[in-house]
Amino acid sequence: MQVLDDLSPAGARVLVRVDLNVPMQNGQVGDGTRIDRAVPTLSELAAAGAKVIVLSHFGRPKGKIVPALSLAPLAEPLGAALGRPVAFADLAAAPGAIAQMANGDVLLLENVRFGPGEETNAPDFAQSLADLGDIYVNDAFSCAHRAHASTTGLAHLLPAAAGRALQTELTALEAALATPRRPVAALVGGAKVSSKLAILGYLLDKLDQLIIGGGMANTFLFAKGIKVGASLCETDLAETARGIMAQADKVGCEIVLPADVMLAQELRAGTGSALATVDEVPDDLMILDIGPASVTDLTRRLSGCRTLLWNGPLGAFEFPPFDGGTVKVAQVAAAQTRAGNLTSVAGGGDTVAALVHAGVADDFTYVSTAGGAFLEWLEGKVLPGIEALEP
Prior knowledge:
Radius of gyration: 23 Å
Number of strands: 17
Distance between the termini: 6 Å
Helix content: 25-40%
Number of domains: 2
Strand content: 15-25%
Structural class: alpha/beta
Shape: elongated
Largest sheet: 6 strands, parallel
CATH superfamily of the largest domain: Phosphoglycerate kinase, N-terminal domain
Strand order of the largest sheet: 5-6-4-1-7-8
CATH class of the largest domain: Alpha Beta
CATH topology of the largest domain: Rossmann fold
């Protein structure tokens, strides 16, 4: 696909789809990571003399104008991040506002989901957006799993290219699975196996080791005949888990489960905890984190890995002390990455929060801010926003 280097943006009206769907608290940006990710592409285009027209969604207005979901409050923080003024216009006023732009100007347009044709990829809505520009740049991997007017429709109507953030993301994902340094491990955690079945099935024959953590591990332990007490466990998926383990054995992928665990009677921050091996879990206690022997085992394994794909926490990290396993293993992966021994790619909402909590989000090779798009990529699905950019 084309990238920014393939464009001649000077004097052109460039429509750039980014993701500014950031958390807001009392009118203030709670986490500006997605704004920061948009800066390289927008700055490069503005510096090259393009008229930069920024498109994004915010929330779920479902095709209606919802004042509380306006992008207007983001013009100022986006301008601060870019170091240049950012004007704002609603969709109706966009043609006039664009006509007044000088080369290098940046204009943020209103929430594209205010348009009833955005989420249905209606041809007339896509064309109304295309009429505003000369070139289309998609820089929103987090929206690439949606076949919307501003993510796929526009790519078929204008010369299209990938922005720097999207290019970086695809390069990182390619390095993690398509052309990885081996051995390759994936750490897949979270509460339920049912939400990760497609991921596990797709990854098995691409990995040397599959590390399973969180509530998911309980289901696999149960499937092996190990009692998990009062822990979260999808007992109805025991046969499915056994099938995954059999398939892993067939393709030569080692499945790694905890050897010891941290236990408690309730899921509450600061509650008392106990340590036990996985075959000694009392009936009245819940598994809420991995134990120190499991951390030591994963430390050893990661020291021998060259590529790590991480999705999901190892325990209930939101409730200390059950963040210990996730934090310690994340710090080991970060140290291996800093030393140049490991290519580490992580993504998914809980994963990003866990790595931020561990203080290592900036030390991984790449941390994706995408949720659904990252998960669908892990499942091997074709992402329509990416496919639309391909020649």
